[in-house]
């Protein structure tokens, strides 16, 4: 069933700047082409004006303006079922944080473009972010079986597995593909992330840098390069984002936190950052980077004893990225919950946080600690856990133990 | 132990149209769609990276 609301427009409705090119292209594309042919339009027959719009969108994406890119892709897609435009819009909406929009169009685009491995990969990835990991993995595996030469479904599965505590499986998946098809940059980037996460987790306490994560059996370093991308070969690019500082040394540890106080502060676990020699940087899902400073502890006993630390920022994030005032759950909250986290927090790659459903129980009122029925990785320390209504219950403070994690309760009232 | 096999057992799920809609039910039976929660809350999540102070003092973000 298709329920996309867009109507494919005549090229005559394009902006003035595109009118000349549109005139030249008018013979190639008639009004409402999808009504003449429900099949997607091959990239080789995209009219120049549409091609130009798609290129502009890609440039916006490369400049780190995914919302502008998404609108340009959408404008291009209004003139026909151009795979590059529609798939590009899904990716751009996702990177722009327009998750509901991305969810709404991803399944439609995947349905309209069954030939697009990237469309199927994006749908699978969005399903995972939405909490449907098993469904996502099934879709991605089926896509890999039907199109073994395509990189995007492999990359999407690898990214899901890295975030779901399976970096070794991600490495093995990538290695099989690279050995068979050659080194591919998107996959090799993900392999490096997986190796980093694996080393970080193996260190347990997280007191390890990213050096020493090279391994001697990395086909990305020995295989010949995959042939240059052609029309049929999908990609799995990463968003343009601010990089963490370029330093001679690597982060000593990493975790998660959450923006509060209308963008001016971040809260995280004190044990992550409680070192006088620490230099602290935070980066959000939009790829915006800030240096942070540990706020001095207050005088009262509860603040001194708290496991939750407050960071002030070099410059505030936008206020609309902050948890709202009154956004914390009651102190005795328990039951259904979900964690939102950058599982591979030590990685400098652009990433989107993943949802992990959970159940919170065994409240120790005196200690302010919950148990939750999901294990947590080292990189997920400090991840916020919310109740079913999206109110903050606490921050993850224990790694996997007997299949459980633990929270430090958070209630500012 | 990984959470993958149990993932869909934790939450009641409904399907609307072509888009999977994960929902979580509160004790009052009110439901909130996961895409809405994700869009609202994901921008607030940050990576926190800790560097040795001496190394990061002269650091410059590569891009911003």
Offer a quick outline of the entry.
The complex is a heterodimer of chains A (413) and B (64). Chain A is an alpha+beta fold and 413 residues long.
Model description:
The complex is a heterodimer of chains A (413) and B (64). With 413 residues, chain A is α+β, with helices and mostly antiparallel strands. Chain A is built from 14 helices and 11 strands. Chain A folds into 3 domains: 1-115, no CATH class; 128-237; 257-409, Thrombin, subunit H (Beta Barrel). In chain A, β10 and β11 (404-409) form a beta hairpin. The radius of gyration of chain A is 23 Å and the shape is globular. Chain B has helices spanning 34-41, 53-56; strands at residues 13-16, 19-25, 31-33, 45-52. Residues 1-31 and 55-64 of chain B have low confidence and may be disordered. Chains A and B meet through α6, α8, β1, β3 and β6 of A and β2, α1, β4 and α2 of B.
Question: What is the element layout, followed by pairings?
Answer:
The complex is a heterodimer of chains A (413) and B (64).
Chain A: H1 19-25, H2 33-36, H3 48-62, H4 66-77, H5 83-95, H6 99-112, H7 117-129, H8 133-146, H9 152-163, H10 167-181, H11 185-202, H12 219-222, E1 253-260, E2 265-269, H13 270-273, E3 278-284, E4 289-294, H14 301-305, E5 308-313, E6 335-341, E7 354-364, E8 369-372, E9 384-387, E10 392-401, E11 404-409
Antiparallel strand pairs in A: 1-2, 2-5, 3-4, 4-5, 6-7, 6-9, 7-8, 8-11, 9-10, 10-11
Chain B: E1 13-16, E2 19-25, E3 31-33, H1 34-41, E4 45-52, H2 53-56
Antiparallel strand pairs in B: 1-2, 2-3
């Amino acid at each position: 069933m298709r329920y996309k609301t867009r109507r494919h427009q005549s090229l005559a409705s394009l902006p003035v700047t595109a009118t000349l090119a549109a005139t030249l292209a008018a013979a190639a594309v008639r009004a409402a082409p999808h009504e003449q042919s429900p099949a997607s339009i091959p990239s080789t027959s995209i009219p120049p004006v549409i091609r130009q719009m798609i290129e502009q969108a890609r440039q916006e994406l490369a400049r780190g303006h995914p919302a502008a890119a998404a609108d340009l892709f959408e404008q291009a897609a209004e003139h026909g079922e151009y795979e590059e435009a529609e798939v590009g819009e899904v990716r751009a909406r996702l990177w722009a944080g327009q998750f509901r929009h991305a969810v709404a169009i991803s399944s439609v685009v995947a349905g309209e473009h069954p030939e697009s491995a990237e469309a199927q990969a994006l749908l699978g990835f969005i399903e995972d972010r939405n909490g449907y990991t098993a469904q996502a993995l099934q879709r991605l595996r089926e896509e890999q079986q039907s199109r073994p030469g395509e990189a995007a479904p492999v990359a999407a599965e690898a990214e899901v597995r890295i975030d779901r505590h399976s970096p070794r499986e991600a490495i093995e998946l990538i290695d099989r593909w690279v050995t068979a098809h050659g080194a591919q940059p998107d996959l090799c980037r993900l392999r490096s992330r997986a190796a980093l996460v694996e080393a970080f987790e193996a260190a347990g306490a997280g007191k390890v840098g990213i050096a020493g994560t090279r391994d001697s059996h990395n086909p990305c370093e020995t295989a010949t390069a995959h042939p240059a991308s052609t029309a049929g070969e999908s990609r799995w690019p990463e968003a343009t984002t601010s990089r963490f500082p370029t330093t001679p040394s690597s982060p000593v540890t990493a975790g998660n936190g959450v923006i509060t106080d209308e963008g001016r502060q971040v809260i995280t676990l004190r044990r992550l950052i409680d070192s006088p020699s620490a230099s602290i940087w935070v980066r959000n899902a939009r790829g915006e980077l800030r240096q942070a400073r540990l706020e001095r502890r207050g005088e009262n006993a509860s603040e001194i004893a708290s496991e939750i630390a407050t960071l002030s920022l070099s410059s505030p994030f936008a206020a609309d990225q902050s948890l709202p005032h009154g956004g914390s759950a009651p102190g005795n909250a328990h039951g259904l919950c979900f964690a939102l986290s950058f599982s591979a927090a030590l990685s400098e790659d652009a990433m989107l946080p993943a949802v992990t459903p959970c159940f919170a129980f065994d409240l120790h009122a005196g200690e302010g600690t919950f148990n939750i029925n999901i294990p947590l990785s080292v990189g997920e320390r400090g991840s916020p856990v919310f109740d079913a209504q999206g109110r903050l219950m606490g921050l993850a403070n224990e790694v996997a133990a007997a299949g459980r994690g633990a929270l430090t309760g958070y209630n500012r009232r | 132990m990984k959470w993958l096999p149990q993932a869909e057992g934790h939450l009641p799920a409904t399907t609307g149209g072509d888009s999977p809609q994960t929902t979580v039910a509160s004790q009052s039976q009110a439901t909130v769609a996961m895409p809405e929660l994700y869009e609202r809350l994901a921008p607030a999540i940050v990576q926190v990276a800790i560097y040795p102070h001496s190394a990061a003092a002269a650091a410059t973000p590569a891009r911003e």
